[in-house]
Amino acid sequence: MNIIQSVEVMRQSTPLIKPFKTALRTVYKTESIIVRIQTNDGRVGWGEAPATIVITGDSLDSIHSAIVNTFTPLLIGKSLLAYERILHEIHQSMIGSSSAKAAVDMALYDLVAQNCGLPLYQFLGGYKDQIETDFTVSVNSPKEMGEDAIRYVQEGFNVLKIKVGKDNLQEDIERMQEIRRCVGSSVKIRIDANQGWQVKDAIRTIRRMEDLGLDIELVEQPVRAGDIEGLKMVTDHVETPIMADESVFSPIQAFEVLKNRAADLINIKLMKSGGIYKAQIINHIAEEFGVECMVGSMIESRVAVTAAAHLAASKKNITRCDFDAPLMMLQDIVVGGVQYDGRIMTFPKAAGLGIVDVIHSHQSVVGS
């Protein structure tokens, strides 16, 4: 019958190997809500929502409350065969809470794909059966960032995502010069300013990096999220491709950015879009505009990253991936799911997400 029978909500907290530093925040551990949805035939779907207050506005408490008090009553007793109706109701039931919506969304897609007997990436489109991730260099001194970059390249990564936008512009330029000097010309380098630059400063800094021959593949979110005109100004005045990240949560925001040609690329994250359901719409809109997408993640475990990776592998228009967060964790809490062989990520043959179990500490069950 595929009827949703119970929703379990768990909290997990796992230290990072090294602090993750951006222009917006410093993170020392992953903290997230794990969701386990079970149907009456015994199948289990998994989802996850990390607390990323500075980006999504979602805290652990708000995510927990949204799932338990608002979404669970909409889920219990519903048939998976009407999953679009369920997802529509979830999105209509409250404003915001995109991370909580994403956790429920990925668990539902896990169950639907299991019901069809397909790995989720095949259910969603099946364009690729493996993907490649970059690795992020946190913002620190130029010397430390250069050393980190060398280590990640030695570990097999050939695309690096460099965090900048903190301190002053000259130091950002020095950071990039040092990293390019350390890793040579064969490694791809992406920059993520996390909204850390003013518009004219961004133009001047990116042009300076172009003049220095630093060969930057793209610059992600150089200016404030809400400044679409400023984002367009940067895009129009530099040669380096500009990627919108925090500027695009919803399909409507994606359409506005694309209609105005305010960015050359879009970074989709399930925690911003509210899950796979809306993320697919964003990607389809971008594809119609001829704009490629990246799929990235917050600081989250292999539960959420597995769901995002399945989406990324399923679509032709998703050409870049940023899924290094689980590699930053001191402990892997997931059994099954997407697997890493250095920078290459592969999928289990099992149906759905392929997640077998999640190690956790605190749990509450809602519905029966």
Automatic annotation (TrEMBL):
Cofactors per UniProt? Mg(2+)
Keyword Iron belongs to the record: no
Domain of life where this protein originates: Bacteria
- CDD domains reported for this sequence: L-Ala-DL-Glu_epimerase (cd03319)
- Keyword check for DNA-binding: no
What sort of enzyme, by top EC class, is this?
isomerase
- Residue stretches making up the Mandelate racemase/muconate lactonizing enzyme C-terminal domain: 142-241
Which EC numbers characterise this protein's activity in its record?
5.1.1.-
Q: Which family, according to the similarity comment?
A: Belongs to the mandelate racemase/muconate lactonizing enzyme family.
Name it.
Dipeptide epimerase
Q: Which organism is it from?
A: Paenibacillus alba
